[in-house]
Amino acid sequence: MSITTLMPIPSGINQNVKAARQQTMISLLGNPRATYSSDCQNPTLPVIASMIVRDQVGPLKVTGLRPAVESLKDIFTDIKSACPNIYPALGHAGMLCARFVRGSTTAISNHSWGTAIDLTLDGQLDVRGDGRVQQGLIDIAPIFNSRGWFWGAGFRTEDGMHFECGDDLIRKWAADGVFGDAPKAGVATASLLTLGDRGPDVAALQTALNNKGAHLLVDGDFGRNTQAAVMAFQLSHGLVADGVVGDKTHGLLF
Q1: Do both 132 and 26 map to the same domain?
Q2: Mean pLDDT across 178-203
Q3: Which of 236, 235, 203 is closest to 222 using CA atoms?
């Protein structure tokens, strides 16, 4: 079987690893830019720009956030040892790219902080959203997970090429002082959900809101419609209608 053979998404991926939430990234590192579009731009926030490095990672030359690049070096060392047939076939389609998540105008891609990478195998990019992933990506995904990285095949819209630093890893780096002078205002709790978040927790939130009378598309994307539904629920239960799912809102919903 070729490493580029397309296979169904395996079960049990991303065990104990969650995608880094937008609020986690902004509260611990700051917002890379004041404005975004669907096009790649560079971060303008000085504290983030100062941590962007260009370095050799295995067979690749990458540009990304320093701690993410250093972590990738460890991951590629593991891949070289465990998957020597895949290691020389690895390429990438970018790491640093300040933009919105594809198809969204609220969710900021984690590429914006340089903490995510899109990988190719033998020059081939896995097609996003077709529900199938390259065999080689399946083989290396557990190595990324073991280092605290989330595999994009676990997003509601499958993104098998995509790997990003997980929420707990970002929080650990912040606690260890890796981000230096980066702002730490209003650090989000691990259970908080807000505009721009995405993933299984958001899908569960949308299902819970629908069970309370909302009519949301359960797509795992915390956009404006989900925010409005949260605010309506909060108002109906005497809570501050800030559109943020904290402990009180979560408790009433679930």
Answers
A1: yes
A2: 74
A3: 203
Note whether residue 185 is domain-resident: no
Mean pLDDT across 54-63: 97
Q: Which domain holds residue 124?
A: 6-175
- In the chain, alpha helices (H): 22-29, 46-49, 66-82, 135-146, 167-175, 200-211, 224-236, 247-253
- Joined together, the tokens standing for residue 43 give 């971060």
Instruction: Establish if 76 belongs to a structural domain.
Output: yes
Tokens, residue 146:
């073991």
115: helix, strand or coil: coil
- Which contacts of 57-64 are long-range, i.e. CB under 8 A and separated by 24 or more positions? 58/87, 58/90, 59/87, 59/88, 59/90, 59/91, 60/90, 60/91, 60/92, 62/92, 62/95, 62/117, 63/95, 63/96, 63/114, 64/95, 64/96, 64/114, 64/115, 64/117
Confirm whether 183 is domain-assigned: no
Structure tokens belonging to residue 117: 């990478």
Count of residues in the chain: 254
pLDDT at 185 over 70: no
Query: What's the half-sphere exposure (Cβ side, CA atoms, 13 Å) at 250?
Result: 13
Domain CATH number, residue 48: 3.30.1380.10
Give the residues across from 65 on adjacent strands.
Answer: 52
Task: Give the phi and the psi of residue 141 in degrees, each rounded to 5.
Answer: -55, -40
Q: Are residues 39 and 125 in the same domain?
A: yes
Q: What is the pTM of this model?
A: 0.83
Rounded alpha-carbon distances, angstroms, from residue 158 to 41, 106, 127, 155, 170: 24, 19, 9, 5, 22
